[in-house]
Design a protein that fits this description.
The structure is a homodimer of 237-residue chains. Chain A is built from 8 helices and 4 strands. With 237 residues, the first copy, chain A, is α+β, with helices and mostly antiparallel strands. The first copy, chain A, folds into 2 domains: 77 residues, Glutaredoxin (3-Layer(aba) Sandwich); 133 residues, Glutathione S-transferase Yfyf (Class Pi), Chain A, domain 2, CATH 1.20.1050.10. In chain A, helix 1 packs parallel to helix 2, helix 3 packs antiparallel against helix 5 and helix 3 runs parallel beside helix 7. The N and C termini of chain A lie far apart (44 Å).
Chain lengths: 237, 237
């Protein structure tokens, strides 16, 4: 039987190997979790035509043979339905809890981290994406990009506060999935990997030492260091 | 076989029927979830002697026949081990996710709600508890009680922001446990019931309408309206 070809459209910077999209990372880790082979296609914010077949304009988009799935949460569920081995969410009860974790990632982690790295993102994206990025983000924040983070130290303290539930839970757990990672881990991981890949400083919230750091390193080392080896703006520093 | 007597030491106000402790509510709802009969003993912050048998000074404390268990998270796990029917957390994977939700309740919800109701709590607790409460909370906040909330409208906006993950998750779910409630629901519920019981205003964060409100009402109505019928400072208003 010929192997199904699987392709993920994956946000890239000017350097096509710089991959920093949080939901794309959540899905790439989920594919690795299930042991599914895939290749990625570098995609930029303004490459709307390249994924117009999906009927929308955001990544990740997964092509699994002739099937198309988009939206990270939909893809995660599609993967569990299609490849039930090594579930990302073992039951509908687990899926409900993970839905909350995902909502926390999007509504608490995202706004706390974004101001710290928004200038780094602008600097690493493709030139053709810059006007789009500036306009859409300035509209979202209601201010010029360079005013979004007036005080990095203060914003790092905000992030530290936001991450407290994660630190407390991980002080008692190996993974948010318990003894093995599940989709909650990958969703949270994606948001931190985002910062790790684009940051020109060492991305270091106040308590970067401790359980979050230990857990993050465990995830970086999974799957033969798949996420650890990805190119970063800072290189190996 | 004689029925085991179960007793919960439950924080009360000056009015012994006014019960507002979030972890006590989480445990009382958990007992109802399992269909376990229990009685409660009203306890005040300074009644340290009454629970000294537990080797610590906080409630809830559960006496289950001759067994003593304290700390809400320990009690929840004890209940699942001892009464495996109608689990509060169906598996170790669910338990791990719920541990995160509990950490979010304690580290994000708690500090966002507390300033809005700290004066209400002070006013409804027993006279003998007031010095203890004022001193311990002024120490925690590093300021006099009446300065903890300088701007209620601003604090309500902070709470609204903190509750966004909950609102988003509940827009797609009946309960954090999925189609039926689990311990995640009861832990979050306890923090809102705290405010509902003591608040002299109608406790109404900016988006109190919507999925959180609908979910909260579902929980209030469970178990023959057990949590709905509890006395409040506002009465039936």
């Amino acid at each position: 039987m010929p192997q199904t070809k699987r392709t993920i459209y994956d946000l890239a910077g000017a350097n096509p190997d710089l991959r920093f999209s949080p939901p794309c990372w959540a899905i790439k880790m989920s594919m690795k979790h299930k042991g599914l082979e895939f290749e990625t296609i570098p995609w930029r914010f303004t490459d709307k035509d390249a994924i117009s077949f999906s009927g929308q304009g955001r990544v990740p988009v997964l092509l699994d043979g002739d099937r198309e799935v988009h939206d990270s949460w939909q893809i995660a569920q599609y993967l569990d339905e299609t490849y039930p081995d090594k579930p990302l969410m073992k039951s509908s009860t687990v899926q409900a809890s993970v839905r909350f974790v995902k909502a926390w990632v999007d509504n608490a982690m995202q706004p706390a981290i974004m101001p710290l790295i928004i200038a780094d993102i602008y600097d690493c994206i493709h030139e053709k994406d810059r006007d789009y990025f500036r306009e859409s983000r300035e509209k979202r924040f209601g201010m010029p990009l360079d005013q979004v983070c007036k005080d990095k130290q203060k914003q790092a303290a905000v992030l530290n506060e936001v991450l407290k539930p994660l630190a407390e839970a991980l002080s008692e757990l190996d993974f948010l999935g318990g003894s093995t990672p599940n989709y909650a881990d990958y969703a949270v991981f994606g948001r931190l990997q985002w910062a790790r890949v684009v940051s020109r400083e060492t991305f270091a919230p106040t308590d970067w030492e401790g359980p979050i750091s230990e857990w993050f390193n465990r995830l970086l080392n999974l799957y033969d260091g798949f996420a650890k080896q990805t190119p970063r703006v800072l290189g190996d520093k």
